[in-house]
Amino acid sequence: MLLLVPSAQAQTSPAQPQPNNMACAAPNEESGGLDFPEDEFFLSAAVPGFSQYDAIDGARMKRLVAEQTAIARRYRDAGNQFWGRIIGTESDHETANWMAQQLREAGAESVRLDPIALPPQWLPESWEVAASQDGQRLNLASAWPTYGSAGTGRGGLSLELIDVGLGQETDFLGRDVNGKAVIIHSIPTSGAIINSAARSGAIRRADEKGAAAILVVLELPGNLQMSLYEANTSVPTLALGSQDGASLQQMLASGASVTLDLSLEVAEHAGLTTSSVRAELPAATEDAEKIIIVAHRDALFEGASDNASGVATAIELLRYFARTPRQQRVRAIEIVGTPGHHNLDSSGFRWLQEQQESLLQGAVLLINAEHTAHALVDRWGSELCATNAIGPFSWRINGSRQLQGIALKAFDDFGIPRWAETGGPTGEIRPIAAALPSIVLMHAGVLLHSNIETSDAVPAASLVATTRAYARIIDEVNGLDATRLVTDDQ
To answer: How confident is the model at residue 17 (pLDDT cuts 50, 70, 90)?
Structure first.
């Protein structure tokens, strides 16, 4: 039987802490982010018969998440307006060295950094967006450039502002947007990167009709900063929070013209480098098959779930299996910390594709440790609500029905909520996911690519559930011949 209980019930201390009474919120600069329950109040699975996985420590993994988010904040506090663990920058190199050291301490062997030369990297250096009307000026604090956006040049732009609603073809009828700054309202259909404006072609439509700048208002409660993937427009394109969008609506509704002042300076930085972090846990024999665990290292903003959680899972899995004496290890484990895909070059994808032949030699299973933990965040009217439940996961399994059965049973037994049907993205391993049996379990919710996806949003109970499930999958796979992972034919 599987029992979901608050984590605190598993503790034996005589005085149990009391939960805080927390309200839903519309996160903005004044209110901050969301308040999440303490770790002990999250629902977790009490799984009988699997005490061998108790050594997988949620609190330790959460500390690893917090250390990675701290790297991102240090980069921001050094004066970088576009911040995170950004490929090719100081925060990227610090993250690579940090991960390598954590793997050494966990018991890995042959830890190394494989250097990667980068093509010129698009990096926004500074931006400022403000609207003015009748002498009143409103600074739009939530503005964030979409990936690869064109800049304005040093002189900036001063443009008439116009609102085209959802940006459907009918919304443009009778509206002259040529040479103007265009507002498009977009409905997130999960988090920021999956939204109606991108799916319906609204952003492309505004560009084709001559817009001189495009503002995409993401209609999530509050005033979040959110990063969209590249919009592929020819003009400056930025995301805005819904609070800033509502303020612009109010100004336009008065009937008086509104001017948008926009400055966005971007540069192409040549000569930057990154690396993939490689580490091994050897098996009993030198020619043993191996299991590969991939975790991309980069992030926008703090990136606690995306992908500090996945890196923490990969490190903890290696630590867990390092406890087994080498002479008892059936298969080797290799950890690969790729530079990631949050850049125009998609560096992690490209590197995996280029290294596919040598990387996958002798591999029987590929696990993508990506977005491995997150609390469920729900929407209630004009607010976001934190919960004490684990967020739901998409999943995709390439391989035999037996492999799928092993994986799904592990997910279910450890209390991981998941889509009933497969079909989620393959994420960082996309270029090689079909080359061998592979498993992807990924949460991509409301806070993805936002400035409030902090370590508080990543409960230890969620880290534990995913990492223990992966450990059990590896144990069961190690009891099977490699052919049984590929096909169910006898």
So the answer is: low
Closest C-alpha to 46, from 447, 440, 461: 461
Residues 394 and 490: their CA atoms lie apart, in Å, by 30
How far is the C-alpha of 364 from the C-alpha of 216, rounded, in Å? 44
Angle made by CA atoms 284, 361, 109, in degrees to the nearest 5: 45
Please confirm whether the linkage preceding 343 is cis (ω < 30° from 0).
no
CA-based nearest residue to 4, from 397, 371, 388: 388
Q: Please, which pLDDT band fits residue 4 given cuts at 50, 70 and 90?
A: low
Cβ-defined contacts of 46-49 (< 8 Å, 24+) = 46/2, 46/3, 46/4, 46/5, 46/10, 47/2, 47/413, 47/414, 47/415, 47/468, 48/1
- Scanning 305-377, the segments in alpha helix (DSSP H) are 310-322, 347-354, 356-359
The string of DSSP letters for 151-178 reads: ---TT-EEEEEEE-TT--GGGGTT---T
The structural domains of the chain, ordered by start, are 3-117+273-486 (3.40.630.10), 121-269 (3.50.30.30)
- The rounded distance, in Å, linking the Cα atoms of 469 and 474 is 9
Condensed to tens digits (0 to 9), the pLDDT of residues 119-139 reads 999 999 999 999 999 999 999
Q: What is the H or E stretch that residue 198 is in?
A: helix 196-200
Are the CB atoms for 327 and 479 separated by under 8 Å?
no
Kindly report whether the global pTM for this prediction surpasses the value 0.90: yes
Element (H, E) at 135: none
- Tell me the DSSP string of 225-256: -B-PPP---SS-EEEEEHHHHHHHHHHHHTSS
Q: How far apart are CA 202 and CA 442, in angstroms?
A: 28
Nearest to 377 by CA among 145, 241, 222, 146: 222
- Which two structure tokens, joined as six digits, stand for 212? 């001189």
| CA–CA dist 218, 343 (Å, integer) | 21
Q: Which of 356, 357, 397 is nearest to 486 (CA)?
A: 397
**What tokens does 165 get?**
């609603």
Give the closest residue to 119 by CA, choosing from 355, 339, 432. Answer: 339
